[in-house]
Design goal:
Elements (H helix, E strand, L loop, with lengths): L1 E6 L5 H9 L2 E7 L6 E6 H8 L2 H4 L3 E5 L2 E12 L6 E8 L6 E10 L5 H6 L2 E4 L3 E6 L8 E4 L8 E3 L10 E2 L7 E6 L26
Parallel strand pairs: 1-4, 2-6, 7-10
Antiparallel strand pairs: 1-3, 2-3, 4-5, 5-6, 7-9, 8-13, 9-12, 11-13
Length: 208
Amino acid sequence: MKVVAFTRAEQGTGASRRLRTAGMTPGIVYGGKGEPTPIKLDHNALFHALRREAFHASILDMEIDGKTEKVLLRDYQMHAFKPIVMHVDFQRVSADQPIHVKVPLHFVNEENSVAVKSSGGTIHHAVSELDITCLPGDLPEYIEVDLAGLDVGHTIHLSDLSLPRGVTATSGDPAMAIASASVPSAAPAEAAAPAPEASSEEAPKKDE
């Protein structure tokens, strides 16, 4: 995936404000063997790229003033209530240096799982992404979690996942829950029938 950026000499809050007014987003590229480089990117192109899942977990080809280098999106800040990207950070990567990144989990076969089809159960996704380390060339866009065999009362743990070649999970806990299945709570019991109303006629008094 390609990203086009330009170096920027403008620094400071006022300069960043002027960039945003001109339809650009300030950012920075750091890491690797190079010095931190202030950059600017077309805001609309960046905004739409950020809506793509792959943009967050892929090695990107960033062209800066005609020179291309490999980078990874590390952080971005949005305006508090406007659809404006305020700032974005990228990290340079080297082919022979492991990276630490979060990748999304894709849950498949949920509607065909044993829990849903046989028991009318529901499946809970305990996490939506996973911390991993790998070389840049081994970075997956996502990790698939197959729910087909999941039954009610059972849990899929981190140790049950089939990670791609060269990928290591960094949670440190093989027993971490990824997904589980349970039967929905029973409907509330019907309200008890109201007690019969007392007779409006008073009982006759006994003669003294």
